Each structure stands twice: as structure tokens, then as C-alpha cells.
Amino acid sequence: MQGNTFGRIFRVTAAGESYGTALQIIVDGVPPGLPITDAEVQYELDRRRPGQSAITSPRKEKDKVRIVAGVFDGHTTGAPVGMIIYNNDTEPFHVKQYAKVMERVRPGHADYTFFIKYGRFRDWRGAGRSSGRETACRVAAGAIAKKILAREGIEVRGYTKEMAGISARPGLTWDDIVANAETNIARCPDSEAGERMIAKTLEAAKKGDTVGGIIEVIARGVPAGLGEQVFDKLTAVLAHALTSIGSVRGIEFGDGFEEARRLGSEDNDIPYYNEKGEVKFKTNRSGGMLGGISNGDDIVFRIAVKPTSTISIDQMTINVIKKRNEKLVAETRRDPTIVPRVVPVAEAMAAMVLVDFLMMWNGYRSLRRDMEGPMLGQDILSAPNV
Amino acid sequence: MQGNTFGRIFRVTAAGESYGTALQIIVDGVPPGLPITDAEVQYELDRRRPGQSAITSPRKEKDKVRIVAGVFDGHTTGAPVGMIIYNNDTEPFHVKQYAKVMERVRPGHADYTFFIKYGRFRDWRGAGRSSGRETACRVAAGAIAKKILAREGIEVRGYTKEMAGISARPGLTWDDIVANAETNIARCPDSEAGERMIAKTLEAAKKGDTVGGIIEVIARGVPAGLGEQVFDKLTAVLAHALTSIGSVRGIEFGDGFEEARRLGSEDNDIPYYNEKGEVKFKTNRSGGMLGGISNGDDIVFRIAVKPTSTISIDQMTINVIKKRNEKLVAETRRDPTIVPRVVPVAEAMAAMVLVDFLMMWNGYRSLRRDMEGPMLGQDILSAPNV
Amino acid sequence: MQGNTFGRIFRVTAAGESYGTALQIIVDGVPPGLPITDAEVQYELDRRRPGQSAITSPRKEKDKVRIVAGVFDGHTTGAPVGMIIYNNDTEPFHVKQYAKVMERVRPGHADYTFFIKYGRFRDWRGAGRSSGRETACRVAAGAIAKKILAREGIEVRGYTKEMAGISARPGLTWDDIVANAETNIARCPDSEAGERMIAKTLEAAKKGDTVGGIIEVIARGVPAGLGEQVFDKLTAVLAHALTSIGSVRGIEFGDGFEEARRLGSEDNDIPYYNEKGEVKFKTNRSGGMLGGISNGDDIVFRIAVKPTSTISIDQMTINVIKKRNEKLVAETRRDPTIVPRVVPVAEAMAAMVLVDFLMMWNGYRSLRRDMEGPMLGQDILSAPNV
Amino acid sequence: MQGNTFGRIFRVTAAGESYGTALQIIVDGVPPGLPITDAEVQYELDRRRPGQSAITSPRKEKDKVRIVAGVFDGHTTGAPVGMIIYNNDTEPFHVKQYAKVMERVRPGHADYTFFIKYGRFRDWRGAGRSSGRETACRVAAGAIAKKILAREGIEVRGYTKEMAGISARPGLTWDDIVANAETNIARCPDSEAGERMIAKTLEAAKKGDTVGGIIEVIARGVPAGLGEQVFDKLTAVLAHALTSIGSVRGIEFGDGFEEARRLGSEDNDIPYYNEKGEVKFKTNRSGGMLGGISNGDDIVFRIAVKPTSTISIDQMTINVIKKRNEKLVAETRRDPTIVPRVVPVAEAMAAMVLVDFLMMWNGYRSLRRDMEGPMLGQDILSAPNV
Fold this sequence. Notes:
homotetramer; alpha+beta; 21% strand
């Protein structure tokens, strides 16, 4: 309820601040018998951690994770999986840089809104709980979700589709993404565009500025039937999950906002039985969801990531204790862009949602019976015409 | 969990199909003493109901609501408010039109995915539970949410910003929206653009086709502080609520996807104290939310609505019982566009979210103490530099 | 959250007051294809309704239920099942009896606590939302839960074990309960004791007084494995469900409070493989739950029901508007005991919990793999002794 | 959902096994500005930990807690509070004692039911997740809940009312409990009875046996109004919370099961205005709750704790891997009784529930308006008599 738990059957709870002692993650609803190691979780965390490239924050955090509960002899036991990541970089002399401006809210950040909620008790050390640091917990939990999905033949992949105003070429395929998304620090499978993205980002960084971008995520192998009715459509819960990531400003499914400009006859995906008797769709404008329920096609969505709010340029702001306008001097340690670091976070959130819906759907359908036969309401066919 | 309940403290549960006996709505968490009448709920329902104009479905449904629980002597009592809307148009001879194609899924609709979940037990009568008819329940519940918000000085307004590819002029103000959004059947405050939207929609309709559009919603008077940490940001829950509406393909907050193309220095909203000592922002690119928590400025978001999937043009599709490809002949009764009808639905969902967060936040802060004083961690200021 | 919804996957939401227009029930999570009729729900409601015997309230309410959503052609569709029960007995001249004492709280009732919460907006007509009338909703929802359980081979039965201080003979079997619980108005399978219970109740009633009793509920056919870890044990959720029924003052599982007086060696149920290779237990002191999870044996629990608070004897009380002590004159229309009427309510709550846990458990275990083989941690067997 | 999270606004999530690396606790919904130290949490943990007396398990665990998130400069920040307790006693040569019987389920324990759910992946080391060890997490979270309650003038106290068949003398007052409950290792405020309880327990222990008992918990200072309608009554949620503790076999409120034997006229608590104009009750048979909502009087309930299932007497049982009946030899390390150790756990659960309801109620009532005035429905007073 307070926003630090996500999911229903596969349920992630997290705690921890940017410069607190540690981040804690508890993942409930993990089925027993899943082989999992610290190293597998670490692999995903390393994709997100700071200091991994020239276009990300130079903060020194190894984000070393340790599984402390729910795993025994290399396998999950059905008990909640507990993980902990200690923060390294928390010495008072480091934190002091933030202390000097503790009363001043940084434009674009949650400093002001956290002050409204938590007042003088707000943890101002590197944004505390509102720092992007919390996304390490999402990635750790997502690593487990991904392993569960892999056993079910489902894979989730994200990549940078646009950054610093530069777009990847259209028509990138799943194979392109699998082969190339991780080959450059922009996480763009179109490596030529990726290079230009990086150059443009470094150029902005040199001026003390930052850039944003657009991430596309695709989930392949998702069976038809995931998503609930009305309020908990798969679209809706994915939207919830993804826009809960800091700096995400919007989400669109399939062709998204572009669909608003089409005619109905141009937008419907036509289903058909292929020669194997499988249901396929001629197109995937819907992003693999009809009425908010997965239709067996690739799940596709995009999120908009704003430029990092922390910039190395002086800005005016407010001092919330002295209640006056003040100048906030430029900061030096920051991410020129967070777009490539958000890619694994977005994948993690999508994976968590998919596992959860899978369990939900399985629980529900386990009590279905007599599914074969004619549709209900056959007698209406013989109703009189009036 | 099954998707027919939304919210935490202010909690809406709904049931009912397109051609079932009735729609039922239960709204839990309504504070006692709110004056409310059937007519006030009816007012909002009339904005959504079919048959209201040349560009909406001609289906004859009065959507007559009756409050049957939770209200006594014209006031809410603190008990859950129960409402019922009987369907009129449910005679077998009417339903027969759907019976003829009960085995064929309509492209763009949830027919196929509902078949996957519910098999031969799917209610195929006008899409059953997956019909847009369920949005009447959202609007009825939203009417109560709006009344609660009004007492707190909060108002939620939506309008059509784009339809059939025609955009309203930029720079529309709150006053424009209040004064003009309801003056034309497009629900566009720019009446000149509205006329062109209507013409273009009717033109598509004549060819049996349909159009989509973009709706903007603004909430004014929202206090700073609404929204939870991490997973339940106000952005995230609004995204959940709004993308749960059928046909909504995306959502963006503030300047949304456009922000992905900006520099950080161009995107931050600068706060300041005005002469009255109030905190204001120079710009509202963020749509009134920082770190996913309301900042006191207008809440602003946009949703993309796809063109109505039901068209009067023949389409190929599958027969899920006979398991073969078949032609689906054109339907005649449909909405040329649902965009103007989605406007009150979008407002309703936003209002429900805001009331819920207001109660959440109030419950939480009621146990805060000693909020005045210096920020925590003053001693760090005297830490040595290393 | 406000208390009008119960359950997680199988989820019941209800509204309605004692003298409001109607009671509404929405049951979400009902699997598709369950045959269900109004009459089947009515059967259970008739077991609970007032006026059924000399020892229950003479109030005239037929409790006629109508399914208005979620059922098509005699089967559930997977959509939420909506039901409505209109109140008959709501004419102002009837309600007037309550109006005369609207400001006075009735001892033993929720009048005072509802006044604290809802103040002058409390619906005082026959206790409004805090009336036992709401239990009709529980029974209606429970009728659906029971039908689902019946398909899975699970049956839930309750009976009066003690009333007005008279106990049924010990050693009643499942067959006794099935055969005889419904044969007398006390709902006691020991008909001789039942007759004495009835006589004692009528004797108290003649003096304007009321009696309580103890109900035992048994669920047969429950598979081992239902119940979650730690906070959501089957015991805990049953306790929640059952003590949420008005007038229930306690619950005990298996041998319950008696176990507190035993030695460990007297209390453990010893498991064994029978000749068919099935796991059985020599005794069932635990009431079919170990560590809060069903063990395949009969689920057994008892609840204590206090005497009806409404009595036909003058009592002192407070006038909450005039803020003074006043006499409350004797009421004439009341239940000499509610014990037999609580039996179907208790069964309904237990059935709802069992269906919910069944879906929960099925969802969760659907993702288990590789369950056969040696226990984890075999290498510990070769650890050195220190 | 999986049972490792409890609460709604004040929400506790826990992980950790008996012989795993660590126990983790995350408490969400803690208001900002609460002064809290590791030592304060440790104080409560020390009341629960093993090895504290001759009648508890000799296991060597210091249960040393560390707060790693959500607290800054000695105060909560509004972020979730994360705590960790590392297990000391986890060396393979210690765990080996359990390994030798890993395939055999211990009678009375959750070994069998966990095996059904988690199969060969069950953590058998000292019962893993189903061990009473998890209650350390409850106590740690409860320590925070208690501090919040203390600021609101609410105190929760538990004590041993009966153990090994010996009852404390009737009529113990709040002052007796505060002064004496912690003065003997039985946690019985009647120290004479406490001595006999201890003697009887040691006598059973000498024979390898164990004993149970009854704990009473009282919460003083609880304002009237806590508890929701219908399904989430304060009684119901307390019952859920308390019966979720392992070994608890029942709960009763106020006079509980005894009320089932009374007449209505003997059971109603009569309210009155005292000379200060405060509402008081002549008696407190209801345990401070009417209609499941607190009435301002002391909250009183009792729980039955069964004798420890682990005994030092040989028992027959099943080997679930070899699927045959086998003897389980006597264990040596065990609690002769857990009753005194359950006292702080019961207090913790009650405190968590009370804080949660307090926030719930405050959130809800914050939107009430116009509470003063005449009751609704005055016009019914002039209805005709028919």
C-alpha cells in the first residue's frame, strides 16, 4: 500500500536508500525447485549498476548481492527469497556533498514532494528512498522472475530505440536485439545509431547537460490468456509496473499513440489458422494484447525516459527550511543519461508482471471443467426476428 | 485480483455484461455525510451513454442508474454505495445478430483472448464482459469520487485533444476547457477543430470505418503529496487506471514522450516561492508530479484511443469452434468513434485514483509528529573532508 | 480495505443495509462453466432467512435472490457473478419503530461504535449495515463456493453443537451430521438434545431473553496443501472469515483450547501409510491442519455465538445526540437465538476460504517442476561432527 | 498473498528460515519522525529469543538485529524500515542432526504439509520456514508498532494466564500485569501460580514431554472506532493475526466461549455517560469491541497455545521419500514450553493490527464533513402508523 510492494502472487517487497546501510529485497511466491545462484542475480545487477560506462554515473557501487533466505542447496524452497545489497559508498565525508544542500530541492527530482510528505525527516542523502538506487531491488527480483519465465519458454528483452534524439533504424528484429543490444554501451541493437547516440550524449555531458530516450521491450513466448478483466488488464498492470520506474514519462503498447491516427480498418490485427492449426495474426499492431489479455503474439511496448534531472549547470530553486529562493550550484557526479541503465529495470518489471499473471491465470483455470463443446446460448439462434 | 475491483481505500467493484440483466457497482470507502442523488450519477452516465450523438453507437440504452445501498436520506452513511443499471436492450431477437457469429472472433476485440480464457462459456452477446459497456460502472463510481473531490476543492476535466487526425489548437487553457469542452459532440474545447473532427469522423463512418484520437485530462486543485514511493507512484496508478480502459493504447504525463528528446536543462521545472510564500513552478513539463508524487501544480496526462474495432467492412477472421478461417461480414451498429465517450470514463478513473490517494496519504500522515525543525543529519556537515 | 470485500482470487464484495433498498453481491474469480441457478442460491438463503421457525426473528423477508450478471444460459462465464436481493420490509411506517429510538444505542450492538465512525450519518434503520442482514450476502456467495467445491469433491457442513447451555452428545459422526443436522430447527444432529435446546430457548424467549451457543463446522475432502506460510495460514484465514460474522466471540481448531492443557505426547497426531499407501493420521486433534496447512484429514473448527443482543427487557443506555443516559424500552421483534441461522453463514465463509486457497495453491504449484528425487542438502550428511 | 506479508497500510513482510543465512524484515507504512534504535527493537527480541530460561529451548541464538534501511539519524524517514537478523547457529555439523531425519516428518509439525507443498525442495533444517524462528520477525516489526502506539497513548500487554494446566488467580488487574508479568520466567503476573507453572513444566520436561497454555493480551488506550465493517472487523483481523502464530489453536474475545452459555440480558455491556461526559461501560464482557469495532474500553483476548510438538519421546511417523512408516527417535534440543516466548509475539501481532487500523480509520475519516447535527431520516418520525 505504501508503494514498496508489487505484485499479487509473485510479490516483491523492497527497502533501502541511496546512502543507507543496505538495500533489502524479499520476493514472495517463488515456486520451489528453481535453481538460482547469487551470480545469476549479479549478472542482471551488473547490467544496471553505476560506473559501467562513460555515459553513466561514476558512483562506485559494486552492487554485490547476497541471497540470505529462501534458497537452500542452490534451489528455491518455496519460502520467500531474501536478498541484501550493502551500500559501499556511505562514508560521512562522501555524504557531506549532499548535506551542504540538504535544504534545497533539486529541480526535476522528488526532493520537493518527499519534503511535503516526510518533512524534515526526509533522507536527503543522494535522494534517499527516491533515488534511482532502489531500482537495483527491481533488477534483483526480476532476475528471479526471468529464470522462472525461461523454464516456461518466455524471454523478455529491452533495448534503446531512441536516445539523445537519435533513433535506431526501423525494422529491428528479435534476432537483431538478442544479438546486438548488449554490444554497445547505449544498448542499441543498431550499433551505428548506437554510436551516434553515445556521441551526442557525451557532447551534452560535456556541457553539463543530460539526455533522455525511448526504450522498447519485447516479451517472446508469452502464452495467450494472461491478463485479467476490466481493471487488471495486462496492459494496465504493465503500465503500472513500468511507469513506476523513476523518470519514465509515458508508455505505449504495440503501435501506441500512432494508432490514434488510424482508421479501424487499418488498425485491426487479422487472426488466422496457419497450416499447423495454430492461431496467428497477420500483423501485431496491438503489441500482443487484445482487450488487455495476451494473444500469443510478442508483447511489445515502449517507454519514454526523460533526461537525468541532475545536471552540472546552476539552477534556481527553493530552500524549504529557510523558505526562500536560492541558487543550486552544479553537481558533478551524475548520469549523462540513464536510458541504457533503465533497460534491465524495464525488463525486470515486465518479467515480474508476466510471472504474476501466469500464476494468477493458472490458479484460476485450474478449476475450469468441461471446456470442450458448443458455445453457450445456442437456443438464441432460434429466437424469432421482430 | 480477477480485475473487477479497483482501488485500495476508495475501492470500486463492478459486474455486468453488455447484454446481461444488469450492471452492478459497489463503491467501498465512501466517507459518511456526502450528499448524493441518483440524478447526479445519472448526469455523468448521460455523458457516456450510447446514442447521444451522430458519431456514437445508436444502441438504445438509457443507462438509468439506481442507488440501492449506502445512501440514506440523501446522504452517504459510510456503508458501501451499491448501484444498479438494468440493461434494456436484451431481447433474444436483438441478441440473435451476435448469435449468428458467436463462433467467429471479431478482429481488434477481446473475443479471441476471452475465448482462450473462458472457452465455450464466453458470453458472446455484444462482447459480454469485454464490451465497453462496463465503463458505465466506472463512470457511476467516478461520479461519487468527483463529488468527494469537489468538497476538497479538486476538479477533474477531460477533453478531446485530437480526433481523426485533427488536432485542437495548442495552448488551450483550463478556462477554455471548462467553458467549451461540452459544447460540441466531439468534446473538443476548440470548436472549430471540433467541427472538423466530426466531419472527418462522419466521412470515415460513411465508408464503414472508424477513427481514434487523443484525450487530455487535467486535475486542478490537487494538493502536493499524493502518491506513494517506488511502485505506487501517482503516475503509475494513474497509468494503471487509465490504460485499463478498453481501446487505450498508451499514456503520457506532462510533456511525456516529447521529454525523451530534451536536454535535462530544458526539462526541469524550476520551483520558486511567490510573493505569498507559496511554492510554484515556472513550468509544468512534469504534469504536476515529481518522483511520481503530486507537486501542487495541475495534474496533466494524455491517453491514446484507438479507432473502434467494430467496422462495417468485411474482414477475415477465425471460427474458434470449427477451427478454420472464415469471413466476418460487416456489422451495422457501432460507434464511428468512442473518443468523446471515453472522456467521462477517463475523468472517472482519474477521480477514483485521486480520492484513493488522498485517503491513503491522510491515513499515513495522521501519525506524523514533530514535523517542524532542522533536517535530520546535521552532524554530517561537520564530517572531515577526505 | 473498508471491510466489504473478502478473499483474494475468489473474492466477494457486498453492500446493503437492513432496511435499504437492496443487498448486492459481486463474486469475482468464479471459474467459467459452473452450472448455477437462482434456485440453488435460494436454497442456501432459505436456510438463513428470518421467519423460518419459532426460535428465529419473525421479520418477513423472503430474501429472494436474482443473479443479474456473470451467468449466461445457466452457466458461469468467468465474469464476476452479480446478485441482488431486494428488501421487502422497508416501508416508513415499519421503520418508524427504529426512528423513535434512533439516538439511543442498543447495548451489545454496533450502534455505538458505528456512531463513533459515521456519526449522525449512521443508518439506524434496524442497525443498517451492522445488522446481521448482511450475512445473506455471505450465504449467497457461499452457495457458489460450495458448488465449486462439490465439483472438487469437497463438502462443508455445520451444525449446532451447543445451545442455551445444552450440549449435543459427544461422538457425532459425519454421517450423523449429514443425516440429521437439518431435521430440527436447532440444526442439531442429536435430535434429543436439539429438542431440549429448543425448549430452553423458548423458555428464555418467553421472559424476553435470548440464548447463544456453539457451532461446529467440518469440511470433508479437502486436499492436503491448502494454506499459506506464516501470516496466511489456513487456520488464520478461517479465523478471520469466521470471526467476521457478527456475534461470533471466538474460534478454536481441532481440540482447540483443550490442547492447551495437554502434554505434547498426548497432542501430536501420528501419521502413517495405510495399506493403500495413503497418508492418514491416527487421530485428528489438530482439526486437519498442521502448521496452518491442510493435511488431508477433515477440517474441524468451532465458533462461539453470543446470545442475541436485542432483548425484550428494558435496559439503560446512552442517547448519543442528547448526550445523556436514557432507558431503552424492550423490543418485540427479535431472534430468541441466531445460532441455527449462523450455521449456513459459517459454512458459507468456510467454503469461500477453501475455494480461494485452492486457486491460490493451484496457481502457485503450476510453476513447480522436478518435484521427484532426493531431498535437498544431502551433502550435509557427510559434514564432520564437531 | 503467499503469506509472508501482513497488514494494509502498516505492512510487514518477512523472510528467513530457521537455519538459513538470515531473517529479513521490511516494515512499510512507518510514519516519518519516529525515534527508533536497534536497542529498542533488541529489547523486544530478547523477550522472545531462545535460551532465556530453563523452560525454553537451549538453542544459542543472540537474535542480534540491525536496522539497515528507513532510519536516518535515529529517526524513521517515511521509507520502509529494513531489518536483518543473521543466524549464528548454522554450521553444517549442527544442521546434521536434522539431516539424519530429513525424510521423516515430525508429528505435530508442518513437516508433512510443507512436504506436500514444496516436496523435496522443503528446507528441512530445523523446520526451515515453518519454524517458530520466523516469529523473531514479527517481534521486530511489533517493536516499531509499539513505539508508534505509545505516542498515541496505546499500550499492549500480554501474560501467561494458564500453563501446564495451572491457572493464574482470577481478577488480575492491568497494574498487576504491568508490575509482575515480566518478573518470572513463566510471564505470569501471579507469581505464586507462576512458580507452580514452572515446576509442572520442568516436571514434564524431565520426562521428555512438553506443555501448553493460555495467553491473555490487553490493549489499553485504544480509541473507539478502530475496525472496519463486515469482513474486516477488528475482531476478525486480530483473529487472523493471532492464529497465524504457530501452535495457536484458538482465540476468544472478551468473555469468549463463556458468552455462548449466557442469556442476552447477562451478556450486554451497558454504556453510560460518566460525570465527565465520557462514555463508559458498566462491564467489559465484549473485550472492548462492539460489532467488531473498538468501543474505547480495554481490548481483551485470549489465545490457546498447544504443547510444543517436539518431544524427547520416541514416536512413530512416516518417511515421505521411502514412503513407509518409521520410528522417529527422541530429540534433545527443544522448548519444554513456548508459552512465555509466545507472549511477546502475541503482543507484536496485536500492536501491528492496531497501528494498521488506526491509519486506515484516520485516512477514511479525514474526508468526513459536517458530523454535528441531527440524525438522518428525521422525516420518518412523521410517517403514518399502518
